[in-house]
Amino acid sequence: MGILDLFKRKPEEIEALDLSWIQADMHSHLIPGIDDGSKSMEESLQLIRRLSDYGLKKLITTPHIMSEYYRNTPEIIGMGLEDLRKAVKNEGIPIEIDAAAEYYMDEIFLDKVKNGEKLLTFGDQYILVETGFINRPQMLLEIFFHLEMAGYKPVFAHPERYQYLHADKAFLQDLLDRNVILQINLLSLTGFYSKQVKDFAEQLLEKGNVQFFGTDCHNSRYLDMLEMLPKTKVYDRIREQKWNNTDL
Prior knowledge:
With 248 residues, the chain is α/β, with parallel strands linked by helices. The protein has 9 helices and 9 strands. The longest helix is centred in the first third of the chain and has 18 residues, at 74-91. It is globular and about 45 Å long. Keywords: Hydrolase.
């Protein structure tokens, strides 16, 4: 051994990612070609095989429905789901595949709710909803109200990423006081988006309104970073708690 070998650092070993403790992922973009997620069936199958290898038993994939960008419908998503299920079965990947949607909350979405249009849900009438990352929609609380009046249970997707919640602690507290269900991206806990988002995600966990975790998987880069989750300080703690994912 040369003297330089003494100063070489051994690569740090990272514990293999285990997601069996949530059993089901309820936020991802795995139907190919209909939003900003997977671009091909081949890519989808590669991602799904990796998710299965992490110990997940079920995937509820949630394509975007956004009036300005992704004009998906329950019919479009249903056809994509059918094709994806067939491909997963043919590949022999041992995982259940279902679909809902990630709805962008705007005036058009509010009209859909008020008009009683068919909306895609998962579990016990849960519906995944999101906003833009910078500015709070003025009708946000109104939309939550009408969803609840229609019998839905809105799940607020990745609130740790919304800058308006970082800046407006009073409004955040208002949401918490209203018992709005929160879903955190596991990637947020790795620092994938930013340290600010990571810290805010940890704060939300402490406040107790988080009921769901999601991968929000779009491509392989997401899963590469997700494999860093075992290095985080919260990994062991969140694995020991009960999350609503396990009831899906």
